[in-house]
Structure formats: C-alpha cells, structure tokens
Amino acid sequence: MSSASLNPSTRPEAIDALVSGVDRYNPQNISVLEDYLYHQIRHREYDAFANLAVLKLYQFNPELYNPDVVLNILLKALCAAPLPDFNLCVALISDRPVSTDEDTEDHVPTLLPELQRLSSLLHRCRFPAFWSAYNSDALALLRDNYTVEFAGFEDAVREVALRAVRATFKRITTDRLSSYLNLQGEALDAYIAKLGWAQENGVVSIPANPDNQIQASVVRENIQFNQLQKLITHAYNA
Amino acid sequence: MSRVQLWAADQEDEDLADVDLGLAIGSYGQHELQPRFDEAAFVALQHQMQQQAAFAQIPDVVKRFLVSFHRAVRENNVAEISAAYEGGWNKLTEKYYAKTEWPDPDVVAPLVNDDPLFLILYRELYYRHVYSRLTPDVDDRFHSYENSCELFNFLLNSDGPVPLELPDQWLWDIIDEFIYQFQSFCLWRQKSKSKEPELEEDPALAQTWSTYSVLNVLYSFVQKSRINEYLDAVREGKSAEEIADIVGEYGSKPLYRMLGYFSLIGLLRVHVLLGDYTLAMKVVEHVELGQKAMLTRVTACHVATYYYVGFCYFVLRRYADATRTFASVLNFIGRMRQYHTRSYQYDQINKTADRMYALFALCTALSPSRLDDNVLSGAKERFNDQTARMARGDQSAYEELYSYACPKFISPDGGVGMWGLPLARWILTGADSPHPLLQALFREELKGQKGAGTLRGFLKMYKTVDVRKMAAFLEGEFKGADEVVMEMMVLKQASRSISHMPGESAGSLLDGQSVSTSDLDFVIDENIVHVAESTIGRRYAGWFIRNAEGAERAYDGLRNAALPKNLKELQQAAAAAAAAAGQPQQEKKAVSFAKVGA
C-alpha cells in the first residue's frame, strides 16, 4: 500500500486525529467516518486508512454494520489496484452479520464474490474481461444500485489500466488501448487528448516515465573500507 | 499434630530460617480454637486440612525457592529476580512439575505472608506453566484471565506508579503470554463451540478474553507510559531531563516504559491476528527496528517483532521489504545460535525462525531479486521440496508454505460465530483450513503470479522479441498475443514495489518509494518487446579478503612456531631412522622433506 492512500493530503484534520488515535474504536464515530466515505466518493478522493477504520468498527460492533457502506468501500478499494487494498478490506469482513433489519436488503453476500472476481481481473490486468464482466447482466445490480452514484467509478478503473500501460508501453496501438479503457471513437480520442498523449496512425505514444525507460546495467561490487580493516592492520603491524 | 511435626522437620533446613514461622503457624492454628461446630466451619476445616496436606507435599527445595523469590521481588532486586525467574523456576519445573501444576497459589500463600502482589505474579507463572506444559481447562482459562486483569489493574489503577521492578524478559513474557492466552482462548472457543453449544450462552465467557478488553489493556499501557513520546524524544536526541519531563512519572519508571514498549509490539501482533495489517504497521510506526533498537534487549521480542512486521510487508505485497526484514533477523538468529543453544525460549525462537524461512522462500518465489545467500540456502535446506515445486509453478507448494508460516488468525468476536455463515464459504471451496478466508485471499494473490515465471524465463533469452512470436511459442499457456501483453503488464507491475530505501532509517515502516525489484526489465513498443537485463558483476572481494586473511594467519603461525635448533642434527636423525626402517621408506622420507622445503 502506498503511503499516499494511507495518509492522503485531502484528509481533514478532524478525521486524521480520529483514525490515528484510540478514538477509532469509539462506535459513536461511525457516522463521521461513513460521511467521510461518501465525501470521498463525491469528490473522487481516496483514504484507505479511514475506510479500514470503518470496517474495523463493524468488525467489533456488528450492530452498526451497513452493507451499502461496505460495498462502497470495496468499490473504492477495487480502484486502488495493483495495490492490495481490496484484499485488505475483505480480510476485515471475515465474519459478517446477517442483517437484522428486514427493510434494507443486504447485497454483500451476492455481490462480494462478483467483486472479488472483478478485483482479480484488474490485478491480472485482464482489462477487456473486466469490462465485459462489469457490463454483464449479472452485475446489473451493482451498476444500478451502487456505481451509478459513485462519481467517476469507470474513470477510476481506467486509471488502473493506465497505470499498467504507462509502466509497460512506449507506444501502444489505439485498438489495444481502446479495449483496455472501454472507450471508442471520439470518446477515446477525447480521453487520449485529455491525457496529453500523442496519437498518430492508430498508435499512441506514451510519454517517458521512470518505468518505461529501460537500461541494462552491471552492478559492480562495492568494497567498504571496514572490510579491509583486518588486512590493513596486519600489514601495518607486520 | 502432624502439621507441627512437618514444620519441625522443615526447621532443620537452615535456608528456611527466613520464613516467619510464627505467622504461618498462627494462621493455621486459628480454626482449631473455634468452639462451635457448625457446617461451614467443618467445610472450612476440611478445606484447611486439604491445604495442609497439599502444603506438606511441596518439596522443601521448592519452598525455599519461593521464599527467596518472594524476598527478591519485595526488595526489587532485579538480578536475583532474574536468576529465580530464568534459572530456579525452570530447573524446579523440570524436576518436580514437568507433568503437573505448580502448587496451588492458595497453598503457597502462607510461605509469602499472603503478599498479594507476589501471589498475582506467582499465579501468572502458575497459569503460564499450565498453558505451556499441560492442557488448560475452562476454569484455568477463566482464572488466568482474571489474574491478568488483577495484575494490570494493580499496575494501571493504583495511586501513582507501583514501585515494582521486574527484569525486561519477564515483562515481555507477561505481555506475550497475555496475548498468547487470548489467542488460544479464541481458537479454543472456536473449536469447542461446535461440540458444546451451551458454552456460547455463558455470559461470563462472553466477557472473558474479549478483544476489546485485550486491546484496552495494551493501549492503556501505551498511553500511561507515553512510550511513543519517549521513542520520539530519544530519536530527536533530547537530554535525560527533557525526556523525564516528557514521559511523566509513569514513563520514567523502567517497568512502565518497558511494558508500554512491549504493548506496542503486542498491538502489532493482535492487529495482525485480526487481519488488520495496515493498522498493525501504523501502531509500531514510532518503533525503530535495527541492531541497536530497544527491542533487541529481549531476543524473543526481537524475533517476534520482525516476524510480524515481515508478515505485514508480505501481505502488503512489499516483498522487497519483507525479504530484507526476514534476512536481517534470520542472520541474527544464525549468529546467536552459537551462544543460546540451551535457553528455554530457544525452541520457540527456532520455530518462528523456521516459519520466517518459509516466508522468505515465498517472497523470493513471488518476487525474485538479489538475495541474501546465507538465508536463501537456509530456506532451501528446510523447504527444498516446496522451493523446487514453486519454481515449477506448483500452486499447492505456495499454499503449503503459507499455511505453515502464517500466524493463527482469530476473528474479533472470539470466533463465537453469532453472525451466521463466515464470508469465506462464499468465496472459496475447501473451507477446512484453519483460517479459510485469509488462505483464500492468498490464493487470489497467487493467481496474479501464475504466468510470471514462464515469461521471465522466456524474456531472458532475448534482447528484442515480437509479442506475436512469443504468443506462438507459448501457445499452450496463453491465448494469443493480447493475453501475452496483459501478462507482461502483470509482470511489469510485479517487478515494481514500494520499498524502504536502503540507509533511510527514519520514518514510519509504511513509508517508502517505488523501486524496481527485478533484474529483468522490459518495455513494449507497439508489438516489440525490448529487454534489458541488469547483471551483477562477479564478486571477488569477499573471496580475496577471506583468503588473504587466511594466508596471513598461516604466515603468522609459521613465523611464531619454534624453529628446530639445528637443522643438520634433525636431518641426521631422520636419515638414521630411515636407514633403520629399511630401504623402501627412504623414498617416502625424501618426498616429505621436499614438501617441508617447498
């Protein structure tokens, strides 16, 4: 996990004090943290550490459990790939309460395996398969109830794909990029333009970055002075 | 009066002279004088007699030991407490209590003037012995919890700091054992709930060993001792007076400071057991790892800390950090082995070390990188079969090592399972492993790594290669060039990891920057893969230095050896001896002389 999502600059001070101290165990703070999650969703921010604190409170106080919040946290974590955030979240919902409230339907049991599969596809960079799974009928529930209100979910997934592309490619065919981003025609052109990447004859050039510049090197051994201490002492005394 | 005879017999022991016999006998004698005979008194009397009988059974040497142990604790004589704690206790355990409990604390009470503090400490040892050597029953688990609470209450809620001093090792063991018993309780409840459902309804059990109460104790010590502030102040190089000001009256006492410090490590462990790895690492962000750190004072603490920190790195996919963490402590254990072969914790340390070798083997399989040869050969020695199978891409080998090496996870409601189906069942088949969910998550991790080994091997042979050509070669494994390209992205991302930069010790354990962990790097230009390999030049220096030092030693040895006084005399003597022995040996002699001359 990167230190950025553990300590994002966007985190308000009040939240920081809350999650860094013992107060994170206080069940009364759950609404503050839940509100903060929805704030993250609206403003396209991400604070993994605060979201884990929510799951922790559910872990200890099953009566607080709110399935919608859990699913939104999982969706947020999904978009952090290839960081392991999704698995870290799932590890905290090991034993899950059966919702006692009949009115609110608990979608976690149905959707969790699906999300797990989506996470695995992203982790394995199977982006076209991700999009077709995501847009399948089986996941209409997820799209209609959750991601529809999740600002920029699809863009966040595209960002996952772009991270992989940036690191791996110098140039990539537009078709390939299109299948990774699930964008075609003008929408794709606009997206590429927004990234500031050059497009020519169906090939997109990716600006140089530390990961797509490769260099062969020979690591030479480095002798420290203290390794020679004994030898030199001996020579001096001899 | 058998009782008096017993004491009379004991009085022959000079070492026991310290015991306040009058007091002990006095308290025993009281019931004799009761004029009325009623039921309660009779029961009490019976109880008393049983205790006397039990008391009579205690070997004299144990009695003497307890008396001097008590005196050492009362006088805060840390050296003597250490000797009794690490030496006497274990020796007597081997001799008298290898298979039974130590004497009941109530029976021991008169020996130590009913000193409540010493009895709490005694019970701490008593139950620890039950847990480690025997099988604790429900009552033991219950009472050991009560006793721990009593001890912590006494330390945390007295008026002002308690003037008690205990050796670091014992303080570590107190915290360590507290968590161990908590963990053991959770696992036991998980197991026994299926057999005895009525256990669940016992309200007393629901309170006992609750996760909240355990966390509460640990956090209380951390706060009371202001250990985080202390560690920061030390790092900033503040003076002793300034530090004393910062940490307050509790934190300046070694007992509280060390308990606070060990509680941080305890929290690290509890959070890992609960599956919260980020929080675990966050808790110890003020703790410095390293050879000179505070945690090296107690070897068991040193080893445990590295194990849990390394495991967190492993789960966070920071394999480079995990590898470095394990290598550092495994090398340390290797060096220590020469000195510590008979320490009573040695077994435990060795077990943890073996699990770290397994995790090390996993890390190197998942993220091949420049390695510590010593540790690598240690890992291969222990897990040769699995290492070979992992190299062939056999998933079950990974899982074997993982389930062997991971901690025994617990669930926060103590595994009572009030909440219906565990999530794990939805995700995975084969729910029979001890911690199915986290095992399943690890399996998910592995899926991402499947094709990486094959691709790596393939890429090593090329400088440039077309992905379509690769697809043709690897037809069995991947479906078409598109899939090869996607797998290449996986490989690329797997070769990048966030890592602590070498030499950058400051900052939290979770800090770090993205680095390349692989010696093989590549980039794709449309459909052409360009490969660059970093090679490590052969290492000569170590070899030369070692041999040069060897030569010097030989040279010194030769120079210091006494030369024969007269070479000629020696030769004549040798010739005479050879002549006496006959012709055939003449030749041999010449050869051996030639050697000496050379």
Automatic annotation (TrEMBL), chain A:
<keyword id="KW-0396">Initiation factor</keyword>
<dbReference type="InterPro" id="IPR033464">
    <property type="entry name" value="CSN8_PSD8_EIF3K"/>
</dbReference>
<dbReference type="InterPro" id="IPR000717">
    <property type="entry name" value="PCI_dom"/>
</dbReference>
<dbReference type="InterPro" id="IPR009374">
    <property type="entry name" value="eIF3k"/>
</dbReference>
<keyword id="KW-0963">Cytoplasm</keyword>
<keyword id="KW-0648">Protein biosynthesis</keyword>
<dbReference type="InterPro" id="IPR036388">
    <property type="entry name" value="WH-like_DNA-bd_sf"/>
</dbReference>
<dbReference type="GO" id="GO:0005852">
    <property type="term" value="C:eukaryotic translation initiation factor 3 complex"/>
</dbReference>
<dbReference type="InterPro" id="IPR036390">
    <property type="entry name" value="WH_DNA-bd_sf"/>
</dbReference>
<comment type="subunit">
    <text>Component of the eukaryotic translation initiation factor 3 (eIF-3) complex.</text>
</comment>
<dbReference type="GO" id="GO:0006446">
    <property type="term" value="P:regulation of translational initiation"/>
</dbReference>
<comment type="similarity">
    <text>Belongs to the eIF-3 subunit K family.</text>
</comment>
<dbReference type="GO" id="GO:0001732">
    <property type="term" value="P:formation of cytoplasmic translation initiation complex"/>
</dbReference>
<dbReference type="Pfam" id="PF10075">
    <property type="entry name" value="CSN8_PSD8_EIF3K"/>
</dbReference>
<dbReference type="InterPro" id="IPR016024">
    <property type="entry name" value="ARM-type_fold"/>
</dbReference>
<feature type="domain" description="PCI">
    <location>
        <begin position="46"/>
        <end position="222"/>
    </location>
</feature>
<dbReference type="GO" id="GO:0016282">
    <property type="term" value="C:eukaryotic 43S preinitiation complex"/>
</dbReference>
<dbReference type="InterPro" id="IPR016020">
    <property type="entry name" value="Transl_init_fac_sub12_N_euk"/>
</dbReference>
<dbReference type="GO" id="GO:0003723">
    <property type="term" value="F:RNA binding"/>
</dbReference>
<dbReference type="GO" id="GO:0043022">
    <property type="term" value="F:ribosome binding"/>
</dbReference>
<dbReference type="GO" id="GO:0033290">
    <property type="term" value="C:eukaryotic 48S preinitiation complex"/>
</dbReference>
<dbReference type="GO" id="GO:0003743">
    <property type="term" value="F:translation initiation factor activity"/>
</dbReference>
TrEMBL record, chain B:
<dbReference type="GO" id="GO:0005852">
    <property type="term" value="C:eukaryotic translation initiation factor 3 complex"/>
</dbReference>
<dbReference type="GO" id="GO:0033290">
    <property type="term" value="C:eukaryotic 48S preinitiation complex"/>
</dbReference>
<keyword id="KW-0963">Cytoplasm</keyword>
<keyword id="KW-0396">Initiation factor</keyword>
<dbReference type="Pfam" id="PF10255">
    <property type="entry name" value="Paf67"/>
</dbReference>
<dbReference type="GO" id="GO:0003743">
    <property type="term" value="F:translation initiation factor activity"/>
</dbReference>
<comment type="similarity">
    <text>Belongs to the eIF-3 subunit L family.</text>
</comment>
<dbReference type="InterPro" id="IPR019382">
    <property type="entry name" value="eIF3l"/>
</dbReference>
<comment type="function">
    <text>Component of the eukaryotic translation initiation factor 3 (eIF-3) complex, which is involved in protein synthesis of a specialized repertoire of mRNAs and, together with other initiation factors, stimulates binding of mRNA and methionyl-tRNAi to the 40S ribosome. The eIF-3 complex specifically targets and initiates translation of a subset of mRNAs involved in cell proliferation.</text>
</comment>
<keyword id="KW-0648">Protein biosynthesis</keyword>
<protein>
    <recommendedName>
        <fullName>Eukaryotic translation initiation factor 3 subunit L</fullName>
    </recommendedName>
</protein>
<comment type="subunit">
    <text>Component of the eukaryotic translation initiation factor 3 (eIF-3) complex.</text>
</comment>
<dbReference type="GO" id="GO:0016282">
    <property type="term" value="C:eukaryotic 43S preinitiation complex"/>
</dbReference>
<dbReference type="GO" id="GO:0001732">
    <property type="term" value="P:formation of cytoplasmic translation initiation complex"/>
</dbReference>
